[in-house]
Amino acid sequence: MALFQEEEFSNDITLGQVLRLPCQFIQGKSNVATKQIEAIAQQLSKTEKNILPVVVKLLEQDNYQSVFNTQILDAARLAKKDFIWCILVDESMLVQVQIEAGLVIAPPIEVTKILVASEQEIKEALERIKAQQPSFDKVNSLKTAKAIVEYRKTNKPKNLTFLTTLRCGIGRAKIPVISDFFTIN
Q1: Confidence at residue 111, expressed as pLDDT on a 0 to 100 scale
Q2: Model pTM greater than 0.85?
Q3: Rounded to an integer, what distance in angstroms lies between the CA atom of residue 75 and that of residue 11?
Q4: Which residues does residue 126 pair with via DSSP β-bridges, in sequence order?
């Protein structure tokens, strides 16, 4: 039973297919609290299998990267399980998984080139950031876009830290988030 529309990935592996893979072939470590992993491990010891599959990407033959539900992989290792149920995905299927799980609102947006983008494009990118990052609520998208366009007229920034000098609500702490949406190149 495939949870996704099946797509051929190689001669013997089908994307979207639920597979039973050896834990030793899967890379990844979650950032979930130890207590939670211990609770999952205890449950896996009782049931002898995971119900919720670990989502993995194929790196090379017999080498996978856990990309979602990695806490289950950690728990399986803690419970000394040799195998775990997984779903093999590619990049586009991973985006679908993230959207369905509520981790992202929409598929990834193309990065805006801040040195050549129009004021409107910059404003729209800032609005996307505000929709996804509550810490950007006080950033005025129109004012910031105008300030960026004005700054570009007399300066050629080499990185995004110039945004911290525009007095538009973007400080150093916000630069890592901004860099997911804007690029200098």
Answers
A1: 87
A2: no
A3: 31
A4: none
- C-alpha span between 30 and 79 (Å, rounded): 15
Contact 14, 58 (CB under 8 A): no
Residue 107 lies in a domain: no
83 and 147 inside one domain: no
Examine the fold and report which residue of 79, 100, 121 is the final residue of a domain before the chain moves on.
100
Residue 164 has pLDDT above 50, yes or no: yes
Residue 2: what pLDDT? 44
Helix (H, G, I), strand (E, B) or coil at 16: strand
Is the pLDDT assigned to residue 60 strictly greater than 60? yes
Q: b/e for 11-44, b at 16 or more Cβ within 10 A?
A: eeeebbbebebebebbebebeeeeeebeebbeeb
Report how far apart the first and last C-alpha atoms of the chain are (Å, whole number). Answer: 44
Q: Which residue has the higher pLDDT, 131 or 74?
A: 74
CA–CA separation, 2 vs 16, rounded Å? 6
